[in-house]
Write a structure and sequence with these properties.
The chain has 9 helices and 11 strands. The protein is α/β, with parallel strands linked by helices. An 8-stranded mixed β-sheet has the order 7-8-9-10-6-2-1-11, with helices on both faces. The protein has a 3-stranded mixed β-sheet with strand order 4-3-5, sandwiched between helices.
């Protein structure tokens, strides 16, 4: 496992907490070799939050080096993916710790994660969606994009009426009693045609999709990785830098779960 820890923030500037946000956030910039390690890191940070070891939220982004299918914790593989197509194209399949439907990621698809401790108790699900997607929507709108929420956890580019809304961000969450993991995709310069080749039409969909195939339903932002990462940091006030990772937890979770075929293929 190879990672590049972030440089510590110069001069110890204080993090700015966005309006309505009750927690402070730190930015974690760590690069791993594999998708499995990134999935394990998200869960390791959630474990820390749930166990009362985190003093604030952690915000991070990452990008897979190669196209990879990531199924939800409760996804049934054959309902959502074309395994033969994945094998023929050399696209690996992983399973994440959160719910929701299958996504395809890789170069041009920025992944974002926010892990928040809740010492008293995690809030209701709809409140979590609003607290996570609202700030990101506002930051993207301030950057000049016409972005709205659709479904339970999608962000879309508006191209006129609702029937023309194009999804660029699908998100999922895992809630523990004292911590929340919220993470998802931000399509920026991704090969959307690949999604149609390896994924089936989803077994359930929000009304606004209106049975549109992947190629007519998804869109890229074309902001560039650096700009998009900056907007994620801005959305959650992640100015302070976290320079450490829960290395032992990540290695354990990869070994016991994310690198195991019986975890990926369990449904």
């Amino acid at each position: 496992m190879r990672q590049r820890p972030a440089h510590h923030e110069a001069h110890g500037a204080a993090a700015a907490v966005p309006a309505g946000q009750s927690w402070t956030a730190e930015w974690l910039d760590t690069r791993f070799d594999t998708v499995e390690e990134h999935l394990a890191l998200d869960e390791a940070l959630l474990e820390e939050a749930h166990e009362g070891l985190a003093t604030g939220a952690v915000v991070r982004t990452w990008m897979a080096a190669a196209p990879t299918v990531v199924v939800g914790s409760s996804s049934r593989l054959d309902e959502e993916i074309d395994r033969e197509a994945c094998a023929a194209l050399g696209v690996r399949v992983c399973r994440r710790p959160s719910g929701g439907l299958t996504v395809v990621l890789g170069p041009g698809c920025l992944m974002w994660s926010v892990i928040v401790p809740h010492p008293e108790a995690a809030p209701p699900i709809e409140q979590i969606h609003a607290e996570m997607l609202g700030p990101l929507q506002q930051a993207l709108c301030a950057a000049g994009l016409a972005v709205e929420r659709r479904g339970s956890s999608d962000l879309v580019l508006m191209r006129g009426d609702d029937a023309a809304a194009l999804k660029f961000s699908g998100n999922a969450l895992r809630v523990r009693r004292h911590g929340v993991l919220y993470h998802g995709t931000l399509l920026d310069d991704f090969d959307i045609s690949l999604i149609s080749r390896v994924l089936r039409h989803p077994p359930r969909e929000p009304d606004y999709r209106a049975r549109r195939p992947h190629g007519q339903f998804l869109a890229n932002l074309h902001l560039g990785r650096a700009r998009l990462e900056s907007l994620v940091r801005q959305a959650f006030g992640a100015v302070a830098i976290r320079g450490t990772i829960p290395r032992d937890r990540v290695e354990r979770l990869v070994r016991e779960r994310y690198a195991r075929d019986d975890w990926t293929n369990r449904l």
